[in-house]
Amino acid sequence: MPSPGAERWVPHDGGIRKLRAQLRECRGCELWEDAEQAVPGAGPVRSRMMLVGETPGDHEDKEGQVFVGPAGHLLDKALVEAGIERSEVYLTNAVKHFRFERQGKRRIHKTPSAGQITACRPWLVRELEIVKPELVVVMGSVAAKALLGAAFRVTKERGKRVELPDGRAAVATVHPSAVVRSDEFRRDFERFVDDLRVAVDLLG
Asked: What is the pLDDT of residue 105?
């Protein structure tokens, strides 16, 4: 049976507090059944820049906060090097519940399916409507599928100015977790920072 999608749970009025409250009730796909909780975005409303990742990880699922695990710590360092204050940007994910598989006692991240990405997309669309960022940094393939379509390839288009379907400026890059796992860490970290600097330059 196909997922009903999040549309029926997403409020079409009110602000970010109402959105976060409603997110806790979402049953738009089956991921809520095993995850600890839905993880909302964080950051000031009316941020000029929004960074969109893929899904919560194990740490985020347990703590209910976005980007607090290893990828989040790396992102913090990259933001500093790029001259971006984390407190001034809005951070969120394309999918709000943690998808994982168990290996013994460990919960290992598993990439969301196309159906799960589609089901969760209304939350992301509403965040964009509320925050109204001038520019969106799209981090990783799941975020790219949600915002730029299935045919978009981050590896080919990273670090360039692209446009979302609504005409909003965007820059695509890898997800920070890919840098954490990289065998060429220093090189890939510097490339990631360079992509973030492109976003800074576009904002002027």
From this structure: 86
Helix (H/G/I), strand (E/B), else coil: 37? coil
Alpha-carbon span 155 to 115, nearest angstrom: 23
Q: What is the DSSP letter of 113?
A: P
| 109 phi and psi angles, rounded to 5 deg | -55, 140
Which is the CATH superfamily of the domain at 16-203? Uracil-DNA glycosylase-like domain (3.40.470.10)
Condensed to tens digits (0 to 9), the pLDDT of residues 25-58 reads: 999 999 999 999 999 999 999 999 999 999 999 9
The tokens for 33 are 């059944």
Full-model pTM: 0.96
Opening angle at CA 92, ends 80 and 145, nearest 5:
110
Alpha carbon distance 108, 189 (integer Å): 23
* Alpha-helical regions (H) of 83-203: 114-131, 141-148, 154-157, 176-180, 185-203
